Amino acid sequence: MKAFYLRNKFVINRILFILCFFIFILVFFNYIFRLIAPFVIGYALSLMLNPLADFLESKIKAPRWFAALFCILLVIFGVTLLTNLIFSRIFK
Asked: How many CB atoms lie within 10 A of CB 89?
């Protein structure tokens, strides 16, 4: 058995590494991603809405707090509209 391990040490170590990697990915997406998903979604939304807030601040001369409030209300309106459209199609 030891001779087999010594001959195939690289392949066995590679297979164990890949197996451990897949187990880590499974654990990450099943448990940990649930905790950090709101932060990832919030960060993505802030990246998408920052150009709109910059436009409102520079071209329209609105204060930053107003631009941020407008972006937040725009997201809430969009999610509400999308949810209403989806549920109206499902429960028609």
From this structure: 8
